Amino acid sequence: MDQVDGALRDRVFSSVRRCIVESLAVDAAEVTLDSRLIDDLGADSLDFVDIVFMVDHELDIRVRETEFNFITRLDFSSPEVMTGAHLTEAVVARLETWLPALARVADKTKVTPRELFSLITVESICIVAERRLQALSPSPATGSAT
User: Fold this and answer.
1) 30-35-37-40 Cα dihedral, nearest 10 degrees
2) Torsion sign (Cα): 37, 42, 45, 47
3) 82: β partners
4) Taking the CA of residue 32 as centre, how many other CA atoms within 13 Å lie in the half-sphere pointing to its CB?
5) pTM here?
6) Phi and psi (nearest 5°) for 131?
7) Residues forming beta bridges with residue 86, ordered by sequence position
8) What is the CB neighbour count within 10 angstroms for residue 127?
């Protein structure tokens, strides 16, 4: 993950875990940073939306207006997004900044939309939330928001 202080990382993970446990009715021990929402925890697209809204409320931020907005608005019929049945390299590169599981994909030129959604992990949600919180926090050097 990006450079984030330990207290913020712990606060965000705790909040995200609580939202996932409540939304999916899973045991907290099952929710780790590497847990994939769909493949490991059994979430579907509506669960994902519910979790994002809960995180927004819990942390008083709007993560749904960040990277998640990008992924939910991808036009899979567009040549800027798709090459044949796979995502373009430009789209994959943009997603890599908040989808750590993409690093484990053997051939990034062969990522399908289905695979993309299966790569959303708890850590992905934490990264987006941490970035949003950091963007809203006053900068130590200037005392203003970054």
Assistant:
1) -70
2) negative
3) 87
4) 5
5) 0.85
6) -65, -40
7) 83
8) 23
C-beta neighbour count of 63 within 10 angstroms: 24
Q: Encoding tokens for residue 84? A: 């044949």
With both helix axes pointing from N to C terminus, report the angle between 45-59 and 122-136 in degrees, rounded to the nearest 10: 30
Hey, which bits of 45-120 come out as E strands? Answer: 82-83, 86-87
- Residues 17-76 have pLDDT tens digits of 999 999 999 999 999 999 999 999 999 989 998 999 999 999 999 887 777 878 878 899
Q: Do residues 74 and 64 make contact, with C-beta atoms less than 8 angstroms apart?
A: no
DSSP three-state, residue 143: coil
Active site residues: 44
Alpha-carbon distances, residue 57 vs 11, 51, 52 (angstroms): 14, 10, 9
How far apart are the C-alpha atoms of 35 and 11, rounded to whole Å?
A: 18
Q: What is the pLDDT of residues 84-103, one digit of tens each?
A: 999 999 999 999 988 999 99
Q: Are 74 and 81 in contact (CB under 8 A)?
A: yes
Q: Please, which residues have CB within 8 angstroms of residue 99's CB and are 6 or more apart in sequence?
A: 116, 119, 120, 121, 124
d(CA 1, CA 41): 21
Indicate the class that CATH gives domain 6-136.
mainly alpha
